[in-house]
Design brief:
By secondary structure, this protein is mostly helical. The protein has one domain (7-68). It has three helices and no strands. Helix 1 (7-24) packs antiparallel against helix 2.
Length: 70
């Protein structure tokens, strides 16, 4: 995906990957994927992508709290 000059598609792919990583319990890798997607969204000034990245970050934070017993 990184070789294709379409950062928006990469960001959406990273969000999809983050969702999968979250389900499988790899919260560190999921956070990295969400962070990269959010950076791309900011750089492109893509509001829908930025909103989806924010929602993914909120979902990840809630799952992390749930796992840690908070």
């Amino acid at each position: 995906m990184r070789r294709i000059p379409a950062p928006c598609h990469l960001a959406y792919a990273r969000l999809d990957q983050a969702h999968h990583l979250l389900i499988t319990g790899d919260h560190v890798a999921a956070e990295s994927a969400v962070g990269e997607a959010a950076e791309i969204a900011e750089r492109l000034r893509a509001a829908p992508l930025r909103e989806r990245a924010h929602a993914a970050h909120v979902e990840l934070a809630a799952a992390t709290v749930e796992v840690s017993g908070g």
